[in-house]
Amino acid sequence: xxxxxxxxxxxxxxxxxxxxxxxxxxxxxxxxxxxxxxxxxxxxxxxxxxxxxxxxxxxxxxxxxxxxxxxxxxxxxxxxxxxxxxxxxxxxxxxxxxxxxxxxxxxxxxxxxxxxxxxxxxxxxxxxxxxxxxxxxxxxxxxxxxxxxxxxxx
Length: 154
Hints:
Layout lengths: L2 H17 L3 H15 L3 E10 L2 E9 L4 E9 L2 E10 L6 H11 L18 H4 L14 E3 L6 E3 L3
Antiparallel strand pairs: 1-2, 1-4, 3-4, 5-6
């Protein structure tokens, strides 16, 4: 595996991210682009954290092989996991970690901020108000009275 393949995959992912769009469509494009450009990746997928468990989301390719994973984090919390199945062992860790960083904002698909703008400074990030991951595909919000999680009206 040469550095050009990794570089080409990152450039393709950056083009997809820069184009923007619906997060689901963006992530489907990302897994397809990576799987197509890294020859020893038989399958590429993203699993999202839902109720403390990983639930498989978009994936591309078919087949098995040695599994490699990279945590996708947002503000220090794991929100997803990047999963690849490789036909051969390679030092993919730096590439997978970079990719996980790039896609992290798109892995917040089910999060609700209750109208609070996304934090942009370290002080705002420490507030962490109103950001609750969805569970079982139902968007969630905090119950202001008791801090519990309740379904959000769509």
